[in-house]
């Protein structure tokens, strides 16, 4: 209806341009044509006849005479079976050599699910990694971040989960990925044949910032469609800290009052709007989210991991190439780990408590104190625990992992020393 | 319908700038019409400057444009009060979510507002007044059975002075919007009273005789809380803690176990999944006090983190207003707000958009007074008819980085009567509930003798000190007496403070059981014990802890309970210095 083209750009700051235009709706998309080429842009603020637009390709190279054409619609993304096996940018352009897909356009960032329609999560997602399956079980419709620091193998872990997890569709959203990491994901998934059940939306570190902001939204919009088609979807996002930093960049450009270390005051709400897309549709599919969040300076109180922790249903700490048992927590595990095997909870609790005692003993040992009998037992236990259970590169089914747990306990302790209820030790304590 | 229509001149996130001609009221509700069409978005006036007003919209503003009309309603943001509230699930603006789901399916729909109280349901009304009676605000017009309560239809809370009853409808079936009584004041003004009444959420209901000091304990069946850090009916408490320390689980347990008449859960900006647990589990659980479904005493206000931010602020007020309404019926109401930090953040977001001068961590300068006036709405009151009603408020706080030295926690601590601080160290060690036994405090009386509690606290404190010291000087540098003290404090922690929320028996301890078990514990504390060495002491306590855990898992006063108790007494006698 209205494809009027505007020529006069009033202001350019960072990636935000201002034009004078009428009849523009909040959130509308526009096409900005400059000497640098054509880019999409989105309306982020209206003030009388001033329209603030966020240019996806960035403000660099835009002239004051650039052409702005409003499209009369908000941001959309195509959805069809043909997406599987493909790689796209944050704004939905193909990144591989495949054809552009234009069919069945869907809105991104849709409304949230009515809490009254949600159901209690009930299915475990098996990953074959004991530190997850035994100690912090991943559950369908759960949202969990992987807290880590630069240098840790978080992308490797994510790729391994993508390969081993028992789900139907995997959506991989990459934000600020190093180009090498993007190639690593693509090749690793391709080698194992998992690429055919994967859709990738990738923003690399050298792409325009604004596209980074779109990655979680497009990934989750597509995931939502698959989930409504009765598919169990696992969304892997890496790295949400880059997403938050992009938000910070835009907020500062817009002269918003920063709240904490420069991040905008709505950081929590923005992150929550994405993570809360994780859902189990009654009578249909589900969305589970695993998102890497790197902690600048290994500081969990940094605003991004901190706010994330309050939103997600637990967290995995990846430290020294291990999933740390302390601090790592799957809040939903209680929903499923009573139905796996009767000893699951007892093994989980006891092994962690003993491991905590082992850590205390280590501390005492490092200060040169005499080791009691109990301390020696703990030392033996700790070493066995670390080598057997904490390895993240194995693929060990839950039941075998539990048996391994009992074996370690029996090798190191008497039943009473573990504090496990006698009914369980009678049944599971390895004989002889 | 509305005469007062303004025009949008700016859209910034969920903040609208609107030009108006006729008078507008601060905090008045208005509707923004998307493209001048039928889709109307609810908004609230939050600032007026000259001929333009700023409105926060309770929805996503995508699609609005400059020039779109805004209808002002002239009413403050209000909730409907009447029968049919209990067992319901509302969003922050009192939209009934289950009925919304029936109409719209899986997803919430923008601009869809339903009547909070269904208009077609008829209620059995019995009048308690007759023509000629003199009444004041809050007096009972009649009653309606609602679940297990007699719901009172009351004289509107906003009436001033004395009114005479002109007429009352006879007993019968009426809908909430039917007029059941007509009142008249001495100036000849008449007022028609429907079964339902409306009340602006940000104003406290004050139709009572006087406020009382909260003294009676509210049993939560959690040993740490009832014995060490009790909460009184009509009191206020806060639960700050870093993420993962178990705030929400603690609140869920309280909502299940607390000995009150009605529980209102205000899920404010937190995870939707947590509300769902309550939603799906409560109808299945029975309330031990009444034998009926727990849902019958529960009301949920649910504005989870992905739902519109502005409605988050409204949701805690909606919750407390509904709590006050039931208090007016002489009931004990517990309001659990999870989490007040999200509400404070909603204030911060709006304050930022309004470009107000920021206070600490960019929270608005009025944060403290807003928090204080919210908690002050809790309390015990004597109603006009002499009955008592209470509103107990418990709010969780989610401090950034788990650091309690931040504005929301500090502002909250100033105004609450009990502080249940959760500690990361305890939750990491899986010691749940992770309420820090040394840092927390309460100004309300415990269910057991205060002197005894003080004694147990001393053991905990001294034991912790020995524990700290042992880290420096090692076990060999610690005397056996100190070491036993340390083991005793660990024993209190393991068997009394820690409680297994997933064990049916252990998860809720009656007051009688707590008194009994605490008595036993105290005896053990005061028993002088002799061990040949530290390893013997340790293994004795390990054994005893395990036995006591089994004891905690056995039904109170059952055969098993007595058997295990005997075992423990025997074990204790073997190491004690003197025979009992």
Number of helices of chain B: 14
Whole-number radius of gyration of chain A?
25 Å
**Could you list the spans of chain A in which at least 5 consecutive residues all have pLDDT below 50?**
none
Distance N to C terminus of chain A: 82 Å
Indicate the multimeric state: heterodimer
Helix run count of chain A: 13
Counted up, domains of chain A total: 3
Q: Specify the structural class of chain B.
A: alpha+beta
Instruction: Return the average pLDDT of chain B rounded to an integer.
Output: 92
The global form of chain B is: globular
Gyration radius of chain B (Cα, Å) is 27 Å
Give the helix proportion of chain B (percent range). Answer: 25-40%
The percentage of residues in β strands of chain A lies in 15-25%
- CA distance, first residue to last residue of chain B: 83 Å
CATH architecture tag of the largest domain in chain B:
3-Layer(aba) Sandwich
CATH architecture of the largest domain in chain A: 3-Layer(aba) Sandwich
Key terms:
heterodimer; A: 432 residues; Thrombin, subunit H; Rossmann fold; 3 domains; 21 strands; B: 580 residues; 4 domains
Structure description:
The complex is a heterodimer of chains A (432) and B (580). With 432 residues, chain A is an alpha/beta fold. Chain A has 3 domains: 5-74, Thrombin, subunit H (Beta Barrel), CATH 2.40.10.170; 77-336, Rossmann fold (3-Layer(aba) Sandwich), CATH 3.40.50; 344-428, no CATH class. Helices cover 34% and strands 24% of the residues of chain A. Chain A is built from 13 helices and 21 strands. Chain A has helices at 130-133, 154-164, 179-191, 209-228, 240-253, 267-275, 303-311, 333-336, 344-366, 373-388, 398-412, 415-418, 422-428, and strands at residues 5-6, 9-13, 16-20, 29-34, 37-47, 50-55, 67-70, 76-78, 87-88, 105-107, 143-148, 169-177, 198-204, 232-238, 258-260, 263-264, 279-280, 286-294, 314-319, 322-323, 329-330. In chain A, strands 9, 11, 12, 13, 14, 17, 18, 19, 20 and 21 form a 10-stranded mixed beta sheet that branches. In chain A, strands 1-7-4-5-6-3-2 form a 7-stranded antiparallel beta sheet, with no helix packed on it. In chain A, strand 17 and strand 18 form a beta hairpin. In chain A, helix 2 runs parallel beside helix 3, helix 4 packs across helix 5 (240-253) and helix 9 (344-366) packs across helix 10. Chain A is elongated. Chain A starts with a strand and ends with a helix. The relative contact order of chain A is 0.12. The mean pLDDT of chain A is 91. Chain B has 580 residues and is of the alpha+beta class. Chain B has 4 domains: 5-77, Thrombin, subunit H (Beta Barrel), CATH 2.40.10.170; 88-98 and 209-442, Rossmann fold; 123-195, RNA polymerase II/Efflux pump adaptor protein, barrel-sandwich hybrid domain (OB fold (Dihydrolipoamide Acetyltransferase, E2P), Beta Barrel), CATH 2.40.50; 450-575, Bovine Mitochondrial F1-ATPase, ATP Synthase Beta Chain, Chain D, domain3, CATH 1.10.1140.10. Chain B has 14 helices and 26 strands. Chain B has helices at 97-104, 223-228, 247-257, 272-281, 309-327, 340-353, 367-375, 407-413, 424-428, 450-473, 480-497, 511-526, 534-552, 559-575; strands at 5-12, 15-19, 28-33, 40-49, 52-57, 69-76, 78-81, 89-90, 123-127, 134-135, 140-146, 149-154, 163-168, 172-174, 179-185, 190-194, 197-200, 210-212, 236-240, 262-268, 298-303, 332-338, 379-382, 388-397, 418-419, 441-442. In chain B, strands 8, 18, 19, 20, 21, 22, 23, 24, 25 and 26 form a 10-stranded mixed beta sheet that branches. In chain B, strands 1-2-5-4-3-6 form a 6-stranded antiparallel beta barrel. A 4-stranded antiparallel beta sheet of chain B has the order 12-11-9-14, with no helix packed on it. In chain B, strand 3 (28-33) and strand 4 (40-49) form a beta hairpin. The mean pLDDT of chain B is 92. Classes of the chains: A alpha/beta (432), B alpha+beta (580). Chains A and B meet through strand 5, strand 15, helix 6, helix 7 and helix 9 of A and strand 1, helix 1, helix 4, helix 6 and helix 13 of B. Strand 5 (37-47) of chain A pairs antiparallel with strand 1 of chain B.
